[in-house]
Amino acid sequence: MNATPLFVLRDRDIFPDALDTSSIVWKDRPTGKAVIFNEDNNIALIGNKVNDFFLLPGGGIDEGESVIDGVRRECREETGCTVEIMDELGITEDFRSRDSKHCISFGYSAKVVAHGTANLTDGEADIGAYVRWLPLPEAITLLTQQEEKVRAGEVKFYNTCFNTIRDALFLKRANELQQK
Q1: Is residue 93 part of a domain?
Q2: Contact call for residues 165 and 159 (beta carbons, < 8 A)
Q3: Distances from the Cα of 129 to the Cα of 22, 71, 77, 140, 166, angstroms
Q4: Which of 97, 106, 137, 174 is paired with 22 by a 20 to 30 Å CA distance?
């Protein structure tokens, strides 16, 4: 995958009153995200019962795990679907001062090759995580609206702010590839 990030996001890009982060020792956290298309050409978004925000399936890559294997595992755990990776969407980076994390997110498009049952973590089950399938244009509209709320300072969930901006970009990149 091209190593040049599509963007680098920092607290001050989202939170105007963010403190100086020059003294933070950052811990790298690789993550993988996927725009998953099912047989109806709808895409999976992950929602929960705590807030009304949706994000793409995916998450942290385990130590010793390849990014592709991590993306497949996360998709299977969160959606129950076995996926085949189709295209690279790009890489984003963000620096989250609250947790001293430097998140490197690898985006892919994928297609469902088999359906199964989600295997949620305790944390995901506790917040009532669920899958919603939407046509790509609707998903882009939804995440674009979420991003507008983030940029207007209306979102109180720290990580959701970063994740929304990243996932909106990956959806738009997937759409560009579909148009070619």
Answers
A1: yes
A2: no
A3: 35, 18, 11, 20, 19
A4: 106
Q: Are 54 and 132 in contact (CB under 8 A)?
A: yes
Q: Are 34 and 58 in contact (CB under 8 A)?
A: yes
What domain count does the chain have?
A: 1
Domain contains 4: no
Query: Distances in Å between the alpha carbon of 110 and those of 39, 42, 44, 65, 121?
Result: 11, 11, 10, 18, 22
User: How far apart, in whole angstroms, are the C-alpha atoms of residue 91 and residue 46?
Assistant: 20
Residue 7 located in a structural domain: no
Q: Is the pLDDT of residue 2 over 70?
A: no
Give the predicted TM-score (pTM) of the model. 0.93
Name the token pair of 69: 């294997």
